[in-house]
Amino acid sequence: MPSIDDLVAQMRANPKGVRFADLERVCQTFFGDPRRSGGSHQAYKMPWAGDPRVNIPDFHGEAKPYQVRQVLTAIDRLKEEK
To answer: What is the value of pTM for the model shown?
Structure first.
């Protein structure tokens, strides 16, 4: 099983073809448990004001590339604020 750092590096290199389970694992590591789960979507709360969530749907076991990019942007912002 790849480490979180390896998964993030793979996502940065190619946001297409990312497994939903891998994106979910990365989100739980950086953002904690989802505030909404069940069904086909999971929403993770962000620690800043504004639109404080990242919503990821399960699209037949894959993550959509634009949502992978949203998660990567949120991770970058989280790292900047620390």
So the answer is: 0.87
Three-class DSSP category at 39? coil
Beta-ladder partners of 53: 45
pLDDT at 37 > cutoff 70? no
* Total residues belonging to the chain: 82
Token pair 């390896």 is at which residue? 6
62's tokens: 């894959």
What type of residue is 16?
K
Contact (Cβ atoms closer than 8 angstroms) between residue 11 and residue 26: yes
Contact 20, 56 (CB under 8 A): yes
Rg (CA), the chain: 12
**First vs last C-alpha separation in the chain:** 27
Q: pLDDT per residue over 3-31, tens digit each?
A: 999 999 999 999 998 999 999 999 999 98
